[in-house]
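Input structure tokens:
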């Protein structure tokens, strides 16, 4: 089990240097506050959308809201920032985050969760603006705000975690997990067509050509893999620049000093 957990980013003891709960530039308490504010914004956006549609008697939009990968990914961001803020607050208070006491399986899940929120939001942004956006700005402020929140700010939120925290590059073992999640969503999309009579995304319609459909699916899959590798490289470079070149080992809580002095060895991430 220990070897498996290490392969999936949860070597034991888990996160001994508090990389998930610290930043190289922000104090832990400020990192926790920013994370909770991002979570509040994301949840507010989701609830406002449901309320807006409900008031206008568009229950059909609410009923099928979770059929869209964009929305599922955005909810993932909201929940990630909620839990990561709680872990960070617990680290500030106790010098040790809650997740360090959780079962190994949950630590593996958290590591994989982090990988999804630094990968999928960027994928959503790329696919939306490259394939789905018509080129005409939205008809009203509500549509403009919600689409900007879900298709642009989502990547800003992901960039915050990529650039300003102390996390290490995600393990390559997470790449098959991303592929599996995309395959599961594809199943959900076609289940939506069977149960509700529409495709969440028009390019998933096989009536427009099976070759075209296969091209889109493989293209999105390839984009996800490329984004994962780019994110991996950016995080590696961030660690190399901030820790090895600038000597910024991170802002730690007074109670959360590492168990031993950490010597930055970037060779583990080559």
């Amino acid at each position: 089990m220990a070897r498996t957990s290490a392969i999936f980013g949860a070597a034991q003891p888990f996160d001994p240097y508090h990389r998930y709960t610290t930043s190289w530039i922000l104090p832990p308490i400020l990192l926790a506050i920013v994370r909770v504010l991002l979570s509040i914004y994301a949840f507010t956006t989701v609830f406002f959308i449901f309320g807006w549609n409900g008031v206008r008697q568009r229950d059909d939009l609410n009923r099928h809201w979770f059929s869209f990968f964009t929305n599922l990914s955005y909810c993932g961001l909201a929940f990630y920032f909620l839990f990561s803020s709680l872990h960070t607050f617990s680290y500030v208070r106790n010098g040790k985050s809650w997740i360090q006491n959780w079962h190994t399986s949950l630590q593996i899940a958290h590591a994989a969760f982090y990988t999804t929120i630094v990968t999928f939001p960027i994928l959503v942004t790329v696919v939306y603006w490259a394939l789905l956006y018509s080129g005409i700005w939205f008809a009203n402020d509500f549509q403009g705000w919600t689409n900007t929140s879900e298709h642009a700010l989502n990547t800003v939120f992901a960039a915050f975690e990529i650039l300003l925290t102390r996390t290490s590059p995600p393990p390559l073992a997470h790449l098959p997990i991303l592929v599996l999640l995309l395959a599961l969503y594809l199943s959900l999309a076609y289940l939506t067509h069977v149960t509700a009579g529409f495709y969440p995304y028009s390019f998933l319609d096989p009536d427009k050509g099976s070759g075209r459909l296969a091209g889109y699916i493989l293209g999105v899959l390839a984009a996800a893999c490329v984004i994962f590798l780019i994110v991996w490289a950016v995080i590696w470079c961030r660690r190399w620049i901030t820790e090895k070149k600038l000597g910024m080992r991170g802002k730690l809580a007074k109670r959360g000093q590492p168990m031993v002095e950490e010597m930055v060895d970037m060779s583990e991430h080559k």
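The first helix runs from residue 2 to 7. Residues 259-270 have pLDDT under 50 and may be disordered.
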